[in-house]
Each structure stands twice: as C-alpha cells, then as structure tokens.
C-alpha cells in the first residue's frame, strides 16, 4: 500500500514499513507548502484505507538561521501537529540543531543499563561464554547501530562518553 503512495512529485518522501517521512527545504522569505503535501498525503492515505494518526505525527524544524522563522502549524484531522526539538527516526535521535548530543545521551543510557545487567550476570557466576554472548547480542549492537552516520561528526566529549562506557566494560 505504501509503495503506491505518490504525493505531488514530492522527491522528499521516504516510505518505511509503517512509517513515512516527508521534508521540505524553504529558502529565506519563502512560504511553506508542507500543509499542501500533508493534505494530499492524508487524502491519498484515506483513499487507500489508512488514516494518519495525528497524535503520532511530529514536525521537526531544522534551521541554520540565527533568527527562527515562524510558520503556520501543520494540521491533520483538525488538530495541530506537535513541533518537537528532537525525534527518533529509524533508531537515530535527530535534533533540530543536527547535533548528536541527544542521540549519544540515549545510547549511553541504554548501554549503561545493559552493562548493569552484565555485571549482575557476572556476579551470578555465569560462564564467560554466556557473558560474551550477552555483550555481543545486547550491548554491542546498541553501541554500534548506525555509527557510520554520526561517528565522524562527534565532538571529543561525546566520543569520550562512548569510550568511557567501553572502558567500564573492560573492568
């Protein structure tokens, strides 16, 4: 169904299994036409037997301007869409300033929780083979997921936060 969805030659539409993302580049002093995209997307979805859940729709505004422009809210089913500062997209936390602080914070929190469980398993005297299996299946994938996307963009202190967790593992 999603593969059939075609919205006004929108080249900035990404379709996933049960998710869709659209974007728009707005040059200085130009109006947004996102509401028109959303209206067309919503009506085509409805004709395909699907309905957008406005509570799950978010708007993330990324701007490099020092002065933030104000735009009319995007409306779906007579409800304003929430404007957020960061949002999770395919497992990556994307921020409106395109910095990786929130993403690394989330990853570090997940890894710390899993390291705690690993320590508990070690105290329970599980064999090294099982501890390694837990690390390989539960910790390493979290640490390495999509690192190709953000690794080269990390500041030293964010990189140090990740490395600190690896040092804890060695203890």
Instruction: Specify the structural class.
Output: alpha+beta
Kindly provide the radius of gyration, computed on alpha-carbon positions and rounded to a whole number of angstroms.
Answer: 21 Å
> Whole-number average pLDDT?
85
Oligomer: single chain
Strand order across the largest sheet? 1-2
What is the number of E strands?
8
N→C terminal distance = 50 Å
Considering DSSP H and I runs of 4 or more, what fraction of the residues is helical? 40-55%
Describe the structure.
The chain is an alpha+beta fold and 171 residues long. It has five helices and eight strands; from the N terminus they run ββαββββββαααα. It has helices at residues 34-47, 101-123, 128-144, 147-150, 156-170; strands spanning 13-15, 20-22, 58-60, 75-76, 79-80, 82-84, 86-89, 92-95. Helix 2 (101-123) packs antiparallel against helix 3 and helix 2 (101-123) packs parallel to helix 5 (156-170). It starts with 12 loop residues before the first strand and ends with a helix. The mean pLDDT is 85.
Give a short summary of the structure.
The chain is α+β, with helices and mostly antiparallel strands and 171 residues long. Helix content is 43%, strand content 14%.
Chain-wise SSE layout:
Elements: E1 13-15, E2 20-22, H1 34-47, E3 58-60, E4 75-76, E5 79-80, E6 82-84, E7 86-89, E8 92-95, H2 101-123, H3 128-144, H4 147-150, H5 156-170
Parallel strand pairs: 3-6
Antiparallel strand pairs: 1-2, 4-5, 7-8
């Amino acid at each position: 169904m999603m593969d059939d969805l075609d919205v006004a030659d929108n080249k900035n539409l990404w379709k996933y299994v049960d998710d869709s993302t659209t974007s728009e580049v707005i040059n200085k002093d130009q109006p947004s036409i996102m509401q028109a995209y959303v209206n067309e997307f919503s009506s085509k979805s409805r004709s395909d037997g699907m309905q957008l859940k406005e509570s799950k729709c978010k708007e993330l505004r990324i701007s490099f301007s020092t002065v933030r422009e104000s735009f009319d809210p995007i409306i779906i089913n007579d409800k304003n869409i929430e404007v957020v500062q960061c949002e999770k997209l395919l497992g990556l936390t994307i921020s409106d300033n395109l910095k990786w602080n929130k993403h690394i914070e989330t990853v570090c929190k997940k890894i710390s929780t899993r390291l705690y469980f690993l320590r508990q398993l070690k105290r329970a005297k599980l064999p090294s083979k099982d501890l390694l299996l837990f690390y390989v299946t539960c910790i390493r994938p979290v640490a390495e997921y999509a690192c190709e996307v953000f690794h080269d963009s990390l500041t030293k202190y964010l990189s140090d936060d990740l490395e600190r967790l690896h040092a804890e593992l060695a203890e």
